[in-house]
Amino acid sequence: MMRALYTAGSGMKAQQFNVDVISNNLANVNTTGYKKERAEFKDLLYQTMDRAYVLNDAGKPVNLQVGHGTVVSSTVRNFENGTPEQTSSNLDFAIDGEGFFTIMGPQGTVQYTRDGSFKLSITEDGMKKLTTADGYAVLDNSGEEILFDPEVNISELSVSPRGEMSYKDAEGVSVPMDQTIGMVIFPNKYALEAVGNNLYSSNSATGEPVQVSEDENAKSIMKQGFLESSNVQVVDEMVKLIVAQRAYEVSSKAIQSSDDMLQIANNLRR
Predict the structure, then answer these.
(1) For residue 20, what is the enclosing H or E element?
(2) For the residues of 107-137, what is the DSSP string, one character each?
């Protein structure tokens, strides 16, 4: 009887974690470039009371086993593209494909984002620097900060689908800036670690980032004047929330039933 209590308890804990993941998805439904997550589960250790065997054309064809519940094994992020929304701002960018912008994050570590709502910051020597809303520098495909001369009119800034930047001078002539906004892809993007502020960190499981500008087969392009919306579908998340709630209730009913059976057993001598 005690096995049922702990097994059902593991189900309640797993569904509570599932609700936490779904709640985070719903909370970020309007977060630029957010990618929804889902919780994955695995069953726990099994107790084998009788094994299947065959001996001299006789035996038992099936096992007699009982499990000990479930546990969360991982959270998997869905990197499906969100809907691009037009903003008409020259400093807003959306990526159509699997790429990520490169950012110089805290403590000088390179991090990555799908949030292309960039801003301008002024350096000590009067140059303009492309940054995120938190002030982190946006990097080019060489890992350098993207700087603009004071005479560059940002309203005339133009960025190609591959990230090459240019601007129009006073005479309307297009002047290349010889800088390309860094956009990378990963061999295993699902191993990227979310660190908050719409940023991701790479690790040994992601593989080394590859610049899209150096890969002719890369299918990621940059859209200027657009932002990528979250790929969270509210209706889908609400259905998952209801299913998780019902599973939580069923596990709690199993605990209640086990407790009632233990109470009956304890009262047999009365």
Answers:
(1) helix 2-27
(2) GG-EEEES--B-EEEE-TTS-EEEE-TTSPE
Question: What are the two backbone dihedrals, phi and then psi, of residue 12, each rounded to the nearest 5 degrees?
Answer: -65, -40
Give the model confidence (pLDDT) of 91-123 as tens digits.
999 999 999 999 999 888 999 999 999 999 988
130 and 120 in contact (C-beta within 8 Å)? yes
Give the three-state DSSP class for 101: strand
Mean of the per-residue pLDDT values for the chain? 90
Q: How many CA atoms lie within 13 A of 246 on its CB side?
A: 6
Buried b (16+ CB within 10 A) or exposed e, 139-150: bbbeeebbbbee
Pairing of strands 100-104, 137-138: antiparallel
| 66 in Cβ contact with 47 (< 8 Å) | yes
Average pLDDT over residues 176-200: 92
Other beta carbons within 10 Å of 124: 5
Predicted model pTM? 0.87
134/131 Cα distance (integer angstroms): 8
Q: How far apart are CA 190 and CA 187, in angstroms?
A: 9
| Alpha-carbon torsion angle 261, 264, 269, 270, nearest 10 | 160
User: Where residue 124 falls among pLDDT bands split at 50, 70, 90?
Assistant: confident
Q: What is the mean pLDDT of residues 167-173?
A: 79
CA distance 214 to 162: 10
The C-alpha angle 20, 97, 212, rounded to 5 degrees, equals 120
Question: For residue 123, what pLDDT is reported?
Answer: 85
